[in-house]
Write a structure and sequence with these properties.
110 residues, alpha+beta
Length: 110
């Protein structure tokens, strides 16, 4: 079992890929839905996620407020794997901060 972005993953391998504009738009739509259905403000949103069926990715957003202190946006392709072989393959060259800042700009501009 693997714990990542407040989820528990069993029998799945996550491979980090570059976050694309449509991933940011999907996370933004998820956050907008939460804001519209509650009395939350942008500062109340600690995390969100978006699953894109078209490219079989899942994108996670975590704000600066999260206790882990590691804000950003991460996008992964999720593959099935044998139980006990769960892992996350990350790419240190992928920038996770700029997409998060872009998302924050979009939200505060709206």
């Amino acid at each position: 079992m693997l714990e990542l972005h407040n989820f528990e993953w069993e029998g799945e391998r996550l491979v980090q890929v570059e976050t694309q504009p449509h991933h940011i738009a999907g996370v933004l739509a998820s956050i907008q839905e939460t804001l519209e259905m509650s009395d939350c403000e942008w500062d109340d949103i600690y995390s969100a996620y978006y699953e894109c069926e078209e490219d079989e990715t899942i994108t996670f957003y975590e704000s600066e407020i999260v206790d882990a202190g590691n804000p950003g946006i991460w996008t992964y392709v999720v593959y099935e794997c044998e139980e006990g072989q769960e892992t996350v393959v990350t790419n240190a060259d992928i920038n996770i901060i700029d997409p998060a800042l872009e998302l924050q700009k979009l939200l505060t501009a709206g």
